Amino acid sequence: MRDEWCGPRRPSSGTRRPRWWPENEPWPPRGPAQHWRRRRRRFFGLLAVVALLLLMLSIYGIASIAWLAATKIGLVASSGATTPKLWFVGGLIGVAVTLMALVARHVAMPIGGVLDVIDRVAGGDYEARVIERGPPPIRAIARALNTMVVRLQDHDRQRRDLMADLAHELRTPLTVMQGKLEGLIDGVYRPDPGQLTQLLEETHVLSRLVEDLRTLALSESGALKLQRESIDPGDLARDAVRAFAADAAARQVTLTAGAAANLPSIDVDPLRIREVLTNLVSNALRHTPAGGAIAVHVAPAADGGVSVEVRDTGRGMSSDEISRAFDRFYKGSDSRGTGLGLTIARSLVTAHGGEIRASSAPGGGTTITFTLPKADS
């Protein structure tokens, strides 16, 4: 069970290391971090004492002034005393202690819990959570911290998954190349043009994968430079589709491109949008059987831009596949690509200020639609 206790944590004197504690740090902890925790506890303790003393003095002073004023106007019979009676002051001090205890319970302890979770997250424990308690502002801080930790945990998981997927994608062509080269050296294969062509194809796979990763990293980080110009979207779509005419004919797939009349000009990087169309059409060709059809259509969008639709008559996708279609390295059971085509398409469309979505049904084909804003007037 996950430890969700959020009060100030005192290191255990035993030898058992907590699951969330970093492996490369000693337990019980020694060093600046632990000294800082002790200083933090001393600070809160001193703060509570000072606040209590100030509150006691304030109550004592207010009570004294009230007693003297009541004596002057005759509400209380004067006994010659210049200060309130001791029992009255004692009662007020008791009230002050009670109030201070409530403040410490509802303010200081929740703040200590927030700081403790921050310590654990800084040490790599992304399962730590703050129990939301205390006044509304402190509960809001705890809620925001929990949201941040959840996002950090998700980003850490994505980073680990990306590294694992990347290693897997790189290992496949490298293994083929290594086997071919070892066979050529040992004389198992003859160094004929066929063998060398296979090696060259594997280097193309590696080169394409590296370039895809570079494009994806630049677009998602906002560092991708777009060479924008005003173009006719219909011409751009027809040029991109024309490059796949021979491949579609070889697969016995009908490939068409159409555009509505009076399309507005769009302000985009033509090379990057052509890359989006290339990824979508090549992906559709891989999943469309012989006798099927792929249609690319460009039409005006409701916001004044354009909408580009790539529709195929392939096997379609389930709802789970649709939800993961744009994830990095996600591939269907019959896919032979790198799993980056749709991810790159989404990143490039987003970089242009557009949106992309997919719709499909098993056995009913797949439609990918993306929008692009109109050119600035």
Description:
It is a single chain. The protein has 377 residues and is an alpha+beta fold. The protein folds into three domains: 103 residues, no CATH class; 63 residues, Signal transduction histidine kinase, dimerisation/phosphotransfer (DHp) domain (Helix Hairpins); 144 residues, Histidine kinase-like ATPase, C-terminal domain (Heat Shock Protein 90). Helices cover 55% and strands 11% of the residues. The strands form two sheets. Strands 2-4-5-7-6 form a five-stranded mixed β-sheet. A hairpin with a 5-residue loop joins strand 6 and strand 7. Helix 5 crosses helix 7. The longest helix has 51 residues. It is elongated and about 115 Å long. It starts with 31 loop residues before the first helix and ends in a 5-residue tail after the last strand. 20% of the residues are buried.
SSE topology:
Elements: H1 32-72, H2 86-122, H3 136-186, H4 193-221, E1 229-231, H5 233-242, H6 245-250, E2 254-259, E3 266-268, H7 270-287, E4 293-300, E5 306-312, H8 319-324, H9 341-351, E6 355-360, E7 366-372
Parallel strand pairs: 2-4
Antiparallel strand pairs: 1-3, 4-5, 5-7, 6-7
